[in-house]
Batch of 4 targets.
Target 1
Amino acid sequence: MIGATLNTVTQLYCTTHPAMGTEYSLYLYAPSREQAAAIAKPVFEEVDCVDALLSNYRPDSELSRINREAFHHEVTTDPEVFRFLATCLAWSERSQGAFDISVGKLMKVWKFFGASGALPSPEEIAAAREHVGWKKIRLDPEQRTVRFLTAEIELDPGGIGKGYAVDRSVKALRAKGVSAALLSAGSSTIYAMGSPPGEAGWKVRVPSPHPGGGTISTVVLRDTSLSTANLSEKNFVHEGQFYGAIMNPGTLQPVRGMLQVTVISNSATDSDALSNALFVSGPEDQAALLGEQDCALVIREQIRESETQAAPKYEAIRWPSEVAQRHLTELPTTKEKVKL
Amino acid sequence: MNRRRLLQGLSFSMLAAKLSGTSSLYGQAAEPQPQPARTFSPNDRIQVGFIGPGSRGQELIRQLLRTPGVEIAAQCDVYEPRFAEVNELVGKNVPAHKDYRELLDRKDLDVIYIATPPVFHASYSIAAMKGGRPVYCEKTIGFTPEDCTNVVEAARKTGQIFQVGHQMRYASWIVESVNRVRKGDIGEPTHVYGYWHRSDNWRREVPNPSLEHLMNWRLYRESSGGLLEELGSHHIDIANWVFGEQPQTLLGTSSIAVYHDGRTVGDNVQAVLGYSKGRRMFFSSLTDNGLMADQVWVYGTEGSLQITLADATFYKRTSKMITEASHSDVVQKGVETGASYNADSAMPYRGPGHRVNMKRDEDPTLTACKSFMECVRNKQQPFANVDVGFRSAIACSVGRQAMYEGREAKIPQLTA
Ligand SMILES: NC(=O)c1ccc[n+]([C@@H]2O[C@H](COP(=O)([O-])OP(=O)(O)OC[C@H]3O[C@@H](n4cnc5c(N)ncnc54)[C@H](O)[C@@H]3O)[C@@H](O)[C@H]2O)c1
């Protein structure tokens, strides 16, 4: 048992592990570097295991196998991957298609797969329509099989996979008797377990969506997760228009007008999926998507018509902390962003 | 004299004769008649009994869950916490047994998977085959030379399907490359160099010290052949496949260079295996390495092949250039002296690599499991059959002992 409650002298350690195209960080208290490493090892093995299941960059992952074969025949998969796919489809249904892991082809058409994006031709975009859509994925729970109804469907776990890996890792941490730890999947999905000694929880800062724009809100988390979706990772600018790597499966275009969504939810899988679903769906659908306990901070772009008008706009749903309006109003408009 | 004693007293040449089936040692003991293997119709689900679902075992179970028409029907492990892990993986309660004999006594099992530590492989496989079940057994098929022989003997006698966990034989890019080598793509292959340089201490964390030997069986001589057996066996198998035969000799050494932590097997090993016509295989394994852990190089008279866990690349010699020289330039003007270094000439014989195109990219262990089930349904012997298992296991088993004693091992040959 290693935890903040014991009288042993413990020190905060951070261990990192590269996986899923990002770096996972695990903060925990341990009496020594060796013990911290010993706790971290099986936790990161969980991350690697999820990567081996779900990576769409690794040809030998189970997801890649499904992508290759599920149009040609029913693919029998293991219960874990089956449950994962069922969860993804449930999120698609709940979000009326805003969340959709079948956007793999679209990500490739927009050159966001392994690159930072480029404008496709209208023909390329139109041709992708046939290859996108969660309703074209059939799951048969009896046989535990997956089938695609049209060719070239490609599942992309980008909007949920890290959350899933975090949940699995947290389970491993709990099994090891760890009582206080913070696990971060490249900062986009974070799980706060217990709290540091003498603290109410782990502090997580939500930055302004504008790089260098400071912190807009600080929340204190305990036994819950937080995920942020924004466009800072992969993006490009074409003729003054900013395009980021979150797709609207309905328009087949990258989402426009949205800057950042941060969600707090008990499960990391849910906060990850939800942050992406909210990012895509319109303002009227957003509140309905949240579960009773979930909180969200949604930051939307607003075209400035006059200098006095506040921009961008934010909406806080049950958000547990203050939001620093000042940092938001100082944000540049879309046009200015080109210069970034 | 019981059968075990009898076998212990045999010389290796006698063993070889025995394996060839000409020996009169057969057929004396009154053994139960092997039961005929079940015949499957296409819709029948194959019921798997799984012995030893530890780390590798659970990986195999995962792949079996991806294999159509297969059911994990029973599990056996001496360490009870495994049962819950398996149930979680399979998504239902799988009947559990603590003794492998109980599992084998069940009437509802069609095939047996074995992924216990290697000391149990032979006796469990033999019992399963004698009970009329096809067996998929992890490498190495036996721990002692006698084990290896007994497994082959049982497989031949029962006619049972037996597959060894040499899943690299099912990796699309390795199959493709070895086939090309065997067709002469790099001339005559003369050397296979295998490196498996890990970067960890090879230790499992143990929840309580009484479980040390159960969980860290790899680290102790009485239960493990060390790195040669655990990792080298895969590469030896590739060399056997490339050369089309098994090794005849093994000269090796092993020591503890880093981990003086009570283990009795080496934390590094170097071994040279001799094949016919002077061909050699070299295997090296150590515990610290910052780059790619696992690679096999095949060197031939006309090129080389690099195989990794993810891909394979052929390198051909660049052809030697011969041009006509001008008498006036060379002889009359004379040749010029100057600096000799030319970056392009640093590797004069290595042309650009050509990566092998993979036809399929699925996990080789899944391919191996699917292929095994196909063999079971069609009553065929697998590609990684018992002979393949013998040829790597015997080298590790005999070689390990010779290494401890500091001598060259003569490796008993398997005869048809
Ligand atoms: N083909 C491959 O690439 C590959 C990879 C890893 C391991 N392996 C092989 O798989 C085997 C297992 O290795 P591992 O790493 O999974 O070891 P492990 O210790 O994790 O698992 C072995 C399991 O067998 C159980 N066990 C031990 N004795 C038993 C007995 N008498 N009856 C029933 N169960 C028993 C243990 O409790 C454990 O659960 C070894 O032979 C190893 O060489 C093969």
Target 2
Amino acid sequence: MTMTQASAPAAEPAPPDSPAGRKDGRATERSVARRLLARPEVGALIAAVGVYVFFFAAAPPFREASSLATVLYQASVMGIMTLPVALLMIGGEFDLSAGVAVTTSALTAAILSYQLTLNVWTGVIVALIASLAVGAFNGWLLIKTGLPSFLVTLGSFLILQGANLAVTKIFTGNVASDSISDMDGFDQAKSVFASEISIGGVNFKITIFYWLVFAALATWLLLRTKFGNWIFAVGGNQDSARAVGVPVKFTKIALFMGVGLGAWFVGMHLLFSFNTVQSGEGVGNEFLYIIAAVIGGCLLTGGYGSAVGPVIGAFIFGMVSQGIVYANWNPDWFKAFLGVMLLLAALVNLWVRRQATRR
Amino acid sequence: MTSNDNGTASGGTAVKDAPGNAAPLVELRAAGKSYGNVRALHGVDLAVRPGQVTCVLGDNGAGKSTLIKIVSGLHQHTEGEFLVDGEAVRFSTPREALDRGIATVYQDLATVPLMPVWRNFFLGSELTKGPWPVRRLDIERMKKTADEELRAMGIVLDDLEQPIGTLSGGQRQCVAIARAVHFGARVLILDEPTAALGVKQSGVVLKYIAAARDRGLGVIFITHNPHHAYMVGDHFSVLRLGTLELSAARSEITVEELTNHMAGGAELTALKHELAQVRGVDVEELPEEGDVQVPAATPSDGTPDGTASETSSGTASETSSGTASETSSGTASETSSEKTP
Ligand SMILES: Nc1ncnc2c1ncn2[C@@H]1O[C@H](COP(=O)(O)OP(=O)(O)OP(=O)(O)O)[C@@H](O)[C@H]1O
Ligand SMILES: [Mg+2]
């Protein structure tokens, strides 16, 4: 019993039903506090409150509602991508191509629509197919070769990064795509992917709402569906999962395609926000997604985590990146601050998990 | 226990069995498996008939797990034939075996440590409710079923929500067995299911095997303990270095012969002399080659079990040879009344 206890975090968030009342009368029921601490996102929540209080005190402009909207926007653009990356991580894999895949998707839609003078929706659909295909390719290669996903997606990262630059240059002779703002369907697409919603005089970007809806969907998927069960299983112990009949290959490929789906969505948002895409963008973001997922309590080795945690992780990211600006510090400190956050979050998560599994 | 020795069994070759001539559910014909250039299994014949328990015995590394992994779809055979319901098949995933009602308790138990007990129980065969877009897990029903099945095995857990990794080795084994019993519709395969279990739970497992047999399931029971095997077995296959050393029906073999075959008669004698050098080991009751003294809780059955404990998935400390022999004698009384010779 002691063998696995130290390393094993508790079960994922307990569904409301409590099996109290039927017990063998030996072990005392884990206290409510312990059960709460067992949830993967608790460490991140504590950290988020800390960061919020810190900037609230240190940076007066941070207290305004419009600042909150900016922080949330920053968090949402990253958070939408963090969700599928977190699910993939719970499923035991990484995707280092996630950052440039966003740019690839946006470039595909922009260049295709512009070059063929199509309705932008055609570009949007083709970009979706391309993004899903990249995800499927990553997953397929992983399954076929048995190589670690770190290596496989490092390869596709380099391929996409190179292709983004080279293909853009072929068509535009430039590092950015041509503006598509005067093309058919642009306004409609912009209202879907990049509009604003005004609440109480403050404008909130629509991505914030998508982000929260996607997080709710991801939570439901993880905890309430077969597929969610399979995600935890393939990340926790792939061989056991296969032995009891879980379709491991399907699950992994679907998770990679989920990352493709996220990349497409964020790519469309960026395209319709800025009308044009810088082909060198996105490099390095893959680590930010992974960092936000880890801060949110997802286990780097897979098999444990939640969708709420990465939401909080992305929110911390948004607060830090904007808070530094509002506090009038040199923004160069951002990465250093993020590094400290990551280490702290990792330690808090470790401590929390120890507390939770001790009985 | 019957001890009618007709002499054919000791020949060391595969003997075609007779009792219950129903068509086999699962059959291996000269099947073999190589891992790269390691030939783990070669030329093995095995038939599993409805309402019969086929016991597979053998030393560590003899190829027992390899054999059942072919049947359960985890590995594919590289030679010979594998038939299900008389039809040659080649499973590419365990899912295909499960879909044909073949459920397995693997030696490493195949559980996911960080997942709750009830999720592990139903992993890969989850119950759902609701129409497609909102089809979701039927958590209530799964928890209830898991609880009932575990209670039926004599395991009562405080909290089905706790990660299975926090259970003891034996408790985890019980979950794995209860799961296979629940999902095994036609064939039940158990790879050393009693390795980490206490007296009571071992007895329950043997009863389960007998009950599954009586319900008309075919059972493959892998064990290092000839007494456990003899209590429930209808047919015995002993593997040695990947080949079939013995294949005999219950009527053709006694438990003493079985023990002797498992240990390899000559080796057992050598072992006896070796043990005689060690102070405190009573070798008087150890069998000699040829004239085999009998069963029960003598050190003779401690020997195969001692080796078993080394392989039982990280729970070695729970099965000292002492508890193992205690187990066999303890369960003898519990199950002997149930078995039909
Ligand atoms: N995945 C594998 N790759 C290579 N060789 C393997 C593999 N699995 C088993 N073997 C080899 O096949 C042989 C038989 O192994 P197997 O696990 O079937 O033995 P076993 O009879 O189940 O032993 P035990 O009683 O210890 O469980 C061993 O020599 C082992 O080294
Ligand atoms: Mg084995």
Target 3
Amino acid sequence: MKQAKLKVATCSLAGCFGCHMSFLDMDEAIIPLIEKIEFDRSPLTDIKSLSDCDIGLIEGGLCNEENQEILHQFRRHCTILVAVGACAINGGVPAMRNHFSLQECLEESYIRGLGVVDPQIPNDPELPRLLDKVLPIQSAVMVDYFLPGCPPPAAAFLEIINAVLEGRPPQLDYPNRRFD
Amino acid sequence: MSNDLQFSLDGVSVCFEKGETIMQAAQRAGIYLPHLCFHPDFSAHGSCRVCIVHLQGKTVAACTQPAESNQVVQSNTPELQKARLRLIQLLFAEGNHYCPTCETSGNCQLQALAYDLGMTHYHYDPFMPERQTDGSHPDLFIDRDRCIQCDLCGRASAEYDGKAIYTLSGRGQNTQLVFRSPSGLLGDTNAGADDRAAHICPVGCILPKTGNYQEPIGTRLYDHHPIHDIGNLRKEERGGSS
Amino acid sequence: MLKRDTEWLVPNSTFPDWNTERAEQMLLQQHPHPFSPERILQSLVLLQLRFGAVTNPMQEWLSQKSGVALTDIRALMSFYFFLEQDKPPRYHLRLADNIVERHAGLTSLQESLTHRLCSADCRIDTTSCIGLSDHPVSLLVNGFPVTHLGPHNLDELCALIINRVPLQKWPRSWFAVDNRVHHKGPLTSYPYQRGKALTQARGMTGDQIIDRIGEAGLRGLGGAGFPTAFKWHWCKQQAEPVKYITCNADEGEPGTFKDRFYLTEQADQMIEGMVIAALAVGAQAGFIYLRGEYVYLYTHLERCLRRWRDSGDLGQDFDIELHLGAGAYICGEESAMLESLEGKRGIPRNKPPFPGTVGLFGKPTVVNNVETFVCATYILQQGSAAFKNTGNEKSRGSRLHSVSGDCRQPGLYELAQGSSLRTLLELSGAHNTLCAQIGGPSGALFFEDQFDTPLDFENPGRGGSVMVFNKDRSIVNITRHFTRFFRHESCGFCTPCRAGTVALDQLLDQYEHNPALQAKSREDMQELVQLMQHSSHCGLGKTAGLPVLNLLQREPAHEQ
Ligand SMILES: Cc1cc2nc3c(=O)[nH]c(=O)nc-3n(C[C@H](O)[C@H](O)[C@H](O)COP(=O)(O)O)c2cc1C
Ligand code: SF4
Ligand code: SF4
Ligand code: SF4
Ligand code: SF4
């Protein structure tokens, strides 16, 4: 009998999509994988609404209120939530702004920065409000597994999915445990 | 007679000389005990606590605990490895470690211990301290975000270079690396790029200003070799061991 | 000229201008070698007291005179929170921030002070417990204690400050510290005769003195309860001819103020005890390490010492030096205290070696608490049996308990070792009691089912200080307060405490405010506290997590 496919959702919060690219970087390994998983909401599928999933892969940390909302949505809908990449795990490169106040960052980007024309800080009410500090996702929700790396190697993605399929905790071997 | 001078470490009998610590004896015997603030050439500090071992019901730091005859010492236990993992995670959480951007990544002892102990994340919320950099020196750059307060630079500077330039100041979570010059800047000391102190940092806090980011990923110290195999090496110490 | 007179060491609201002659003269009056590196911390403290701050030029001058690098002077300034480099305001109010003061309304008092004095020449902040929890809310004004601040006298205080009334003209009653002992025992009522114990001791060998102390069963009253005779014996045995006696008067454990009583009322007994110890082990010099919060007792103690010196009773070749701390709880840890006495940051040393082998300036050193020396004098005067016959098998004698918090009569109570907590609660008029913290934040929290626990060395907390909490108090708040205390006081040397106290504080916040992570933070805290207990370098980190453990053991039984 054919096993039900594993439902996987992914999203990029305060990240660069590099982690997503790395996921796709698994070459021909992706072909058998597609037999076993199907994607729900994900930038890879462009499905915008989230239904109940087996795994949620979160790239990026929290830098604004929209990020927070999406993260909580993922937590509610995903049995297993995985923090993917340095940004989700510790804030990563975006968290380097934590050295400065939010105001300083905005002024540097939109007012004093190099090559700024028509200097003004965007204030459209549609824009999600920025958080004071960029936070890792584990400071807001329970996270089941962490895939370190910037980005994590494709093999690490494969391992996490295989582990869930086999119902065991993931085992990242030495070359797949890396922070850069 | 000299047979009396031995103790058991994880079931292996280790000889020691009078006055040696557990760490020193273990190193001579070629047994790796995880550590960060210890270096065989300098006095022991005992601050990182990564070298904690069980000694007859107590937990002690191997780098400061004198070896004694017939001691029974345990180091490689799941419980202690877990404790070390947590200590490493605390060190990550209390600084600002952005490995992807760090020159030392791949050669860093803190990171290497994290890899070796199976660390995937910080476990604790990052403290996000605000720490100052110092670029005043012509050849050296200081990024305090990565300092783990181990005082190795201080000891190397005082005990080896005879300069006593680097030291620690402040209290509690505000402890920080400082330099002995009236301005407090490294550039106003007689620090040299060839000083031992400038090359002793186990992490990426004291860096040369030139020649950085040249080692391709995959060729760095700890890319393929766990720290328990090759020891707490520095780039320029390849082939040696500490 | 060495006169050690500090007629200027009184509550001041104006400080003289600093100049090098004035500074040097003042320092030389206190010590013949004020610029030797090991005196540097004391010189900083004295400059701070005399001129209200140690500004940059003063630091540079001291650096030049002493040869101590400016960076090291700054390192001291950054470690000892009472040293300040900014020009002082006319009034610097440091409100004591112990949980007892919080319960007595500290937060709202601080808010209204800050609000009402915003344009006055004054600075308002908080400091850890100042040893006056029986007089809440208490504060230090320019270093001197003002007691019983409350809504009833807030207007008056603000008026004094706004009208720039000099501190010397403030009502004397504002500075009153009540050292009444509400329940007396042998130590607080025996007919002490100055020098009698010492005369006894002079007729004995060192070993005989130590035997006397040993027969009495005296154990240290500074916290650990280590047998005093053993400590003295160990020190005496060392071949090194130079030895020191040090008296730990740092009394930093929040809620503890029994040493305040002895330093005020029984300084002679304490000094006599130190001389006896010196005779016993063969020591050449003694040091008293007085916490900066007790600077108001400095002159009193100097006078007592002078009387001993002048009468020749200190002995031909023994003298005692009085040192001041400057706002660092960790300096009560014995090896950190020795570092501080040597003029350094108070970072605890590696042990072994213990102070008895390698102590102050590398010499064998006895470290004892104030009350321990007081007891030694008692034992030599009244006999070992008198001491031994009080208390119980493993904890002999009696001791003074500091009682504060939710009771009718906070203050000092002398009880035989082994008396129950219940007795003490009844004597002090505690009512509607939820629980009591024994032995300070690093001690133990007892709930009603534990009120019959004997207060002695064999039980958690070991007695000495009791903070009483009634049923309106929140255990989470108490725990958070204690956890922050340790975070604030961690010396920063070792990972588990420097970073662990911060992580613990964060986790506690998460536990309280993020229901989604409550179970996880609970588990994490439990694990972290264990890690800190096992891997910390000194007692501070080892005990810093105990309040959290107490909380977790009781939750959810006591908090909804
Ligand atoms: C963090 C810490 C703070 C301490 N503070 C004090 C103190 O304020 N006063 C004191 O007498 N002992 C204090 N102690 C205990 C001392 O280290 C030491 O055990 C004691 O002074 C020895 O004297 P005793 O044998 O007479 O008790 C402290 C210990 C620690 C770990
Ligand atoms: S972890 Fe690296 S690759 Fe992934 S989103 Fe962050 S910056 Fe991009
Ligand atoms: S010092 Fe080590 S752990 Fe820190 S950022 Fe650099 S590589 Fe990472
Ligand atoms: S700069 Fe490096 S060597 Fe110096 S204390 Fe910091 S981590 Fe240690
Ligand atoms: S346990 Fe805390 S106070 Fe003690 S040495 Fe470590 S950091 Fe300092």
Target 4
Amino acid sequence: MIEFRGVHKAFDQPGGDRAYALRGIDLRIEEGEFVTVLGSNGSGKSTLLNVLAGSANPDQGHVLIDAQDVSRRPEHRRALYIGRVFQNPFQGTSPSLSVAENLRLASLRGCPRGFRTAVTQGERARFGELLAHFELGLENRLDALVESLSGGQRQALTLLMATLRRPKILLLDEHTAALDPRAADRILHLTELVVREQSLTVLMVTHELADALRIGNRTVMIHRGRIVLDARGDERSALSVDALRERFERLYREELDSRDRVG
Amino acid sequence: MTALMIGAMAQGLAYSLLAWGALLTFRLLRFADITVDGSFTTGAAVAGVWVLSGRDPVVAILLAMLAGMVAGTLTGLLHTKLAINDLLAGILSMTALYSVNLHIMGRSNLALIGTTTVASRLQTVLPWLNVDLAPLCLFAGVALLVFVFLAWFLRTDLGMAIRATGDNPRMATANGISVDAMKIVGLALSNGLVGACGGLMAQHQGFADVTMGIGTLVAAVAALILGESLFGKRSLGWTLFGVGLGAVVFRLIVALALSRGLDPIDLKLATALFVVLALMVPTLKRRFARRRPVPVGVDA
Ligand SMILES: Nc1ncnc2c1ncn2[C@@H]1O[C@H](COP(=O)(O)OP(=O)(O)O)[C@@H](O)[C@H]1O
Ligand SMILES: [Mg+2]
């Protein structure tokens, strides 16, 4: 179980302004929940994921994983619990390491690393099977450097790496946004596959309203650092893409109005 | 082969330790570590003082390595714990080491002529080795040892974590690797090699001097760049081998240039120019590539 308790986070902007990225987030994610996260640019979605992973520390409030307060734990010491796929396909893998080496590295996520010679024969066989399961055509290219892979292949490899050792939560931050439509579909399909097979708990940021409603079992909308919609069960089933779009536009209009009043 | 070339090859084999040190920091960790300009001398000073007191020359090299590792760790701590950027952290260590080195030596240079060295020790074991061949065999042995060690180490889980740290720190962190710890380990290892090389060179040349480390990083990077161009990016093993060989080629070129009349005063200038030219190649390539029309419909 994952919990955000009264989380606030602000950043100093280059111009000297402060960006209030999260303004009092309370969110409890149960085991096995697949939460899709919506919100316009700059609404705080990535910061929400970063605060949980430890790439950013909350100014106020706490983040809990299985009832343990991890708010002050450095990022690399939370990695045991967290699998991540970033938006940029270049961010999830080590380009000058081979496919097998990347997988080996990920298979030790959050574990101490010693002097064992990294990739064993047995492991190569296992990695080959996993890659074949993903149908990337990489099962015979274990020794290829990752820098020779396409963006879609890298993103699929990152997904495989993030789930190689079952995480307590899988964080996906617009992980299909930088891919061409076909590769994006493929990654989304693989995401659903691996989440189902391992019954993972997921927090997935997406810009596609239809995906947000179709995939997963709970949808959260963030606006200016606050949760403005949290739908699951029947309430969520009743939501339509049009209703969501309507909601986005209303929030946008309200924001313009409030700015006019101030100005 | 002339004694000059044999000497250059011996030096080159010893310098392969510097080139591998640069590979670890400059290439794998993407950390331009100028500490080596100080830690090379530290290794020479430690080894020099040790043999002057009549103690074991092999232990002297191990101590030189240890001293280098301490220096590297210091730079690593400055960089990671105090968030000082890589260049400045190295400059601070290098500057501090200048005083430390003077303290170790007690004066600005040590004459080591007539002391027992690892090479002279080798000669007592293998009497058929002459004065020229003993260092050559010794340095070849040391280089082989370090090559085998690095080829093994960089493929262990720890070694891979270091490579991933330089390659993609964000991904390394997400996989539970402490980027800070890996940088410290890499810097310690690199400066350990440099310190050992300093110790070997002090014994080989018969002196240690407080200024002898100046230009170490640039020379090491020159050897690194030369070595990388020898075999391309075939595999880690080939890269390691190429970089070691690069140091030998570099010393041979230097010896040739000096014998053809290059003024020793200009040696560092020429080395720096070589590195500048080598670093310009990618920039020039890019500039040249941009002039060409961009192909349509090709996805990056
Ligand atoms: N590292 C950072 N430094 C400065 N400002 C940041 C940083 N990260 C996020 N922000 C700011 O916080 C706000 C929320 O950003 P983010 O969480 O990335 O939004 P989203 O992912 O929803 O587009 C934005 O105003 C953004 O500019
Ligand atoms: Mg974002």
